[in-house]
Amino acid sequence: MSDLNQSKPRIFVTGATRIVEDESMRSLSAEQVREVLKRSCPEVAHATIRERQLDDGSTCIDFIPAPGRKG
User: Fold this and answer.
1) Burial of 37 (0-12, 13-18, 19+ CB in 10 A)
2) DSSP per-residue string spanning 6-55
3) I need a surface site. Which of 5, 11, 16, 37 has the fewest CB within 10 A?
4) What is the distance between the alpha carbons of residues 16 and 68, in angstroms, rounded to a whole number?
5) Model confidence over 53-71: pLDDT tens digits?
6) Is residue 64 classed as helix, strand or coil in its secondary structure?
7) Each residue of 14-30: pLDDT tens digit?
């Protein structure tokens, strides 16, 4: 990660929820953030993680829900 990207907070997206990284999340990996988020957003527990660069140079991490089984 370059110095430019380190100054911009990462953005985590799951469905319509968008979470901008704060100091408490800065040192966490995407997997560690998943562990934190799955308490309030259970759909991220088995979601696919996709990382992409936005036009402004910030990093966006998408949690793409995987279809689950019922019953």
Assistant:
1) buried
2) HHSPPEEEETTEEEE--TTTTT--HHHHHHHHTTT-GGGTTPEEEEEE-T
3) 16
4) 19
5) 999 999 999 999 887 766 6
6) strand
7) 989 999 999 999 999 99
Structure tokens at 51: 């990382």
Question: Which of residues 45 and 2 earns the better pLDDT score?
Answer: 45
Nearest to 67 by CA among 49, 47, 40, 50: 47
pTM: 0.79
Q: Which two tokens stand for residue 1?
A: 């990660």
How far lies 57's CA from each of 35, 38, 40, 50, 63, in Å?
26, 27, 28, 16, 19
At 48, the amino acid letter reads T
